[in-house]
Write a structure and sequence with these properties.
The structure is a homodimer of 125-residue chains. Chain A has 125 residues and is mainly α. Chain A has a single domain, classed as Orthogonal Bundle (Arc Repressor Mutant, subunit A), CATH 1.10.10. Chain A is 57% helix and 11% strand. The first copy, chain A, is built from five helices and three strands, in the order ααβααββα. Chain A has a three-stranded antiparallel sheet. Chain A is elongated. In chain A, 19% of the residues are buried. At the A-B interface, helix 1, helix 3 and helix 5 of A face helix 1, helix 3 and helix 5 of B. Chain B binds a DNA duplex (30 and 30 nucleotides) through helix 4.
Chain lengths: 125, 125
DNA sequence: TACTTACGTAATTCATGGCTTACGCAGAAG
DNA sequence: CTTCTGCGTAAGCCATGAATTACGTAAGTA
């Protein structure tokens, strides 16, 4: 379920901008903040979230922290989307096949019986 | 920039659950809501957001609306991550090469001059 | 025609979280 | 040792948005 953190992290536009700032290579916090319309502490907070999602990692170099993209979070996210993608393709295939099978059958009654009505449970909260 | 909407849409856990409910095939709004701890209107609102992100699409069938995964949004998202991934790999390669070049040089002075200090602009908002 | 089903939409409430300022701390520099 | 730089953290404010209830509507059904 690690992809959840990555998706949450990348949902915010500013945080995505922080992430994109590291796209072309490592940067310090100050460098990242200098290119964005938010304060440096805001960038620090975003970097913490990104780090928690394994999307970035940091190394201390003197008094400055150098952040870089961590491929782990990206790999997790790509893996999730890939599995979803293949599942969807499989579902499409199965659906098309079922439809083709139904078209070649005599249809027991022309009545509009689409689908067995699922058991309905009361939903309140 | 369409990937932004997709990321925003998939950031919410409930909305992700709605999306996942369509992973194995088309479903009606009521069916989706029956499997989730939220009300049916909530599911409707989530589906609207997902539709705006091109992650799902709907077809009317009598009185019910059948939602299914739209591959467009997924493709956009995967494309964004893929391009980011390759950029990151390229940045890593360039960095490793620069580091290897620096290691084989005489190093003009053992002083700790790491990097040219970037122009500092006041940042407040 | 009246009733029921399966929705979408509007209005409202309330929690999440993003941003700021203020502060503290480690490391380099003098 | 003192000063400055670069950064993380805390507290507080405020906007965004997720959920609910109430309502309206179109399409099947009796």
């Amino acid at each position: 379920m690690a992809y959840a953190e990555a998706l949450t992290a990348l949902a915010d536009p500013t945080r995505r901008a922080v992430f994109e700032a590291l796209r072309s290579g490592p940067r310090t916090v100050g460098e990242i903040a200098a290119g964005l319309p938010v304060s440096r502490p805001a960038v620090s907070q975003h970097l913490r979230v990104l780090e928690g999602a394994q999307l970035v990692s940091a190394r201390q170099h003197g008094t400055r922290r150098i952040y870089r993209v961590d491929r782990a979070g990206l790999a997790i996210l790509r893996g999730y989307l890939d599995s979803f993608w293949s599942d969807v393709l499989e579902a499409f295939r199965a659906e098309a096949e079922a439809q083709a099978r139904a078209a070649s059958e005599p249809a027991p009654k022309p009545s509009r019986a689409r689908r067995a009505a699922p058991k309905r449970t009361r939903r309140t909260r």
